[in-house]
Please model this.
Amino acid sequence: MFPAWPPQWPEIAESVAESIASGNWGRYQGPAAVELADQLCQLTASKRCRLTSSGSVAVELALRSVGVLPGDQVICCGYDYPGNFRAIELLGARPLLVDADPAGFSIDPGQLDEVSDSRVRAVLVSHLYGIPAQIASIRSLCDRRGWKLVEDACQVPGMWVDGRPAAAWGDVGVYSFGGSKPLTAGTGGALLTNDDSVASKWNVLLDRPSNAMPLSELQAAALLPQLLRLEQCNQIRHETTQFLLNAVDWLRDAVGDLQPVCGATCYKLAANVNAAPGSVPAGVPGSVPAGAPGSVPGRDHAGAPGSVPGRDHLLAMLVARGLPVGAGYRSMHRSSDRRCGKVGQLGRCRILGEQLCLFDHSMLLATGEQRERLAAALKLPQ
Model:
């Protein structure tokens, strides 16, 4: 019903076969890895790139390289990839959680003005589901407060935000090449920066004297052909998204205004399916009123014909139809105060954790008749 992922493109097999035939696959650093790093620099307008064994490792190294130390505070969104929270803890630092932007899925810049803790060293911000963070405002706030900025662009390679490539706004930008990502090598990642002093710390952390956390030459060979198709794939995802939103009423209402724009890298398409009545108390900051743009009335049961069921029932129905869907991240608003600090009640994070239904980008690569079949599979019983 939709294209396979990871992609089964012949040029990937040819690139990997060439690496094997040449013997480059057995080198510590072969030409494919060198070329990949160079192309990622071009893609992100960065001076320095360091390939890593995973995106999670890259986030940890990014925090280390901007000077995060035990006892420091690192601001992040209460709704984010859980590995980012753990990376902060791994360094002996303390996450300071702020609420998500009502107009997106990342840090609300207005929350940063409320932070007064002098122990804050850095802000870790992620671009999620094809909707960019308000990165220009966050960058400006970091500069004004003397904080470092780590930009998690793991989901959005190739996306531009306010005139710059994603990963170019931070003191360090991070990519991931995990198995499900828009650029995939099964695992792997990259660090990107224009700051030579930051890049020099990567050498200290990783050269022992061989690279301690490398991306392999075979992985680099598999990634290079994908870079050539990245823009094309982004365009297809955008066109499929628009087709589905036009064809499926409940999906259009659930996505609302928070849909990726043309040119965005849509790793997941996020639909906000309201939780059961009463699960979100009235007046909780960040709650989405019934009937508001981007909201869909929901129930824990199947509901009346044509209605949208609660999220878990909806997911079970769509999974049974063979669609690559799943829930969003778990909100961290309930995390123990012993583990982290919080700014406010994180009400928007709670809503996102309870209500988001995510559609994988492999589905969005559908074309032609595949799109028609997808639209039919997404429609609810009348």
User: Anything to note?
Assistant: The two ends are 23 Å apart (CA to CA). Residues 10-227 form a domain with the Aspartate Aminotransferase; domain 2 fold (CATH 3.40.640.10).
